[in-house]
Amino acid sequence: MNVGRQLYRYQSLGHKTCSGIDKDLLRRSKRGWMWRQFFLQEEYTGTEHQYIGKLHSDMDRGDGTVMYVLAGEGAGTIFVIDSNSGDLHATRSLDREEKPFYTLRAQVVNKKNGLPLEPETEFTVKLHDINDNEPKFDKEVYTASVPERSHIGTYVTQVTAHDADDEMFGYSAKLAYSISQGHPYFSVEPNTGIIRTALGPSDMDREQREHYQVVIEAKDMAGQRGGLTGTTTVNISLTDVNDNPPRFTQSIYQFSVPEITKVGSLVGRIRAVDADVGRNAEMDYTVVNGDGLDVFDISTDRNTQEGILSLKKPLDYEKKKSYMLQIQVQNTHPDTQFLSMDAKDIANIRVSVEDVDEPPQFEKINYILEVKEDAAVGTVIGSVSAVDPDILRSPVKYSIDRHTDVDRIFGVYAGNGSIFLQRPLDREEFAWHNISVIATEFNNPEQTSRVPVYIRVLDVNDNPPMLASFYETFVCENAKAGQKIQTISAVDPDDPVGGHRFLFSLAPESSVRANFSVRDNGDNTAGIFTRRTGFGRMHKSTHLVAVVISDGHIPMQSSTGTLTIRVCTCDRDGNMEMCNAEALSSTTGLSTGALVAILLCILILLLIVVLFAALKRQKKKEPLIISKEDVRDNVVSYNDEGGGEEDTQAFDIGALRHPEVMEESKLRRDILPPESLYPPPPLRRTMVPSRGNADVRDFINQRVQENDGNPTAPPYDSLATYAYEGNGSVAESLSSLGSVSSEGEQDYNYLSEWGPRFRKLADMYGGEDMAE
Length: 772
Known about the structure:
The structure is a single chain. This protein is mostly beta strands. Helix content is 8%, strand content 34%. The strands form 13 sheets. Strands 37, 39, 42, 43 and 44 form a 5-stranded mixed sheet that branches.
């Protein structure tokens, strides 16, 4: 089908156009047009296929030999063509907002063989828009803010809506904005959607109303009647500006504080309110006037914006009982656009000081005393002083905290606080003493205070200087006169103000004056020099040089130190080669190592002797039972055969007496009891005297009299009782001494009541009774 020879016929089967005129009256036919577009109205609501147009080719002579074929977007589904006539239809309703146009291709082919009679022709089907979409805003809810007290026309925010209809076709997508809720505070520009304030600063006060809800409407068809509309909500908040000064909640505040309150402690809180919020509500408090400017201070709690009144100096009820302060509050960040710099508020504070029983107060926070180390016991070295600050002026007594003076070197007079010595001092042992003195009220001992006392012990020249170490040197046999053989120095535990100055000299009684000399170097050292040439090692191998060391202080102290000099053989350079063994041992005896070795040997020998003696004395005792596992197979041999009850010499037979009889006649064994304490013991049963027990009775009576008369005998309570089975035993005591009944007196009928296990015994003993 040649595009240049297409036939376009815009026909309709009785449908109306936009102007309401029947399309059958507008049928037209043109040949040779360059027609490439068809138009179709969207949202078709008819029941039949919607007619689009007619395709015709010059090759179609009406004899039915050609056939029209359609291809492209939606061909065969959305769009269909009559293969014989070339009529083009749409099978369903289309939405321009989903797809605004479709591209199709048409071709004429031979119906018999399907061969194309001319090339394909491409054309477009465009959809005509109708106003079927309402405007849509970008957000359902907008949030905006504007400072309070803004001027009329201040920009707030902008809203935007979109219409899916075709902007190029009519006014379906032409929008107009209007405000339906939010009058008279805000307005909106119809074309742009910009929202602005509509009232002046005095009407836009956040403290009166902070939040506003504005409803904006967008309408298409340029806002004309019949247009579709969409709405959105804009929540507008007024932000705060600093347009309100702080105000105190009350004009006068009253607080009371004890006089013993520590510096920096809280006295009270005051509050001012500000209608603003956030940074605009921050405030500062200051003390501007009053008689307590230097006693109290005030600051701001940044969390609560309260004024915190605190103590800057100690209080004293006896000096001042109350204070009056004037406090000022103002914004920390004032805005001169809304408030003047003088926007502030004033309040008064009255602070009452409460009287408290205070502990004594020392005149100083610490005391430093000095005393010479040679001060006598009882010497007063200084004093401390404390007074009761209360009006009553209670007397004060003093004492020393013995935890700080464990050795009780110092004492204090309770009445006046004078500190004195109780023991001698030694600066070389302790140069400083730190003690604590306690002051206590007489009327209220719970009120105490303490003060540190630092006592410095001044040095006194009470120690003589001594040689710095034990000096032992040598002199060569070939030494020349004036040769220095040793340099010595001294030490002194004293600490003079000007430093030490030691003087060295040879002791007058020294027997070696002709051999050696001492030369003072003037720097607290001295040199030992030879005074003659040549020393004989064989003649005298050791020399002892006595040196006197003295200090130059008052009183002068001195001591004598001995220097040991051995005579040795030396080489040409003066190096020692050999000394006599006599020289090594004559002055100092055996060497330290030898003495230690000898002492260790002696100690080891002593330990061996002691150990041997202890082992020899110790007797090895065999255990009665060798194995703990099985005691039945062990035979214990005591090697002692007792004599029975007749053997009265082996043990105290008095221990075998029946305890019931002994209990009735308890006597003290350490004193001689009176005769009245020996009444005849009562018997619980009739005792049958026996001829064979007379000797036992006599023996017991004799022993009782001997023990009662012996003052060194142990008390009765120390005796142990054996061979007794308790009061619950029918057999009672196993000893014949306590047995007073015979076999004939026993009744064994109870055995028959004990069950089948005792039946044999019951027959045996019960039978004998029956026989009798």
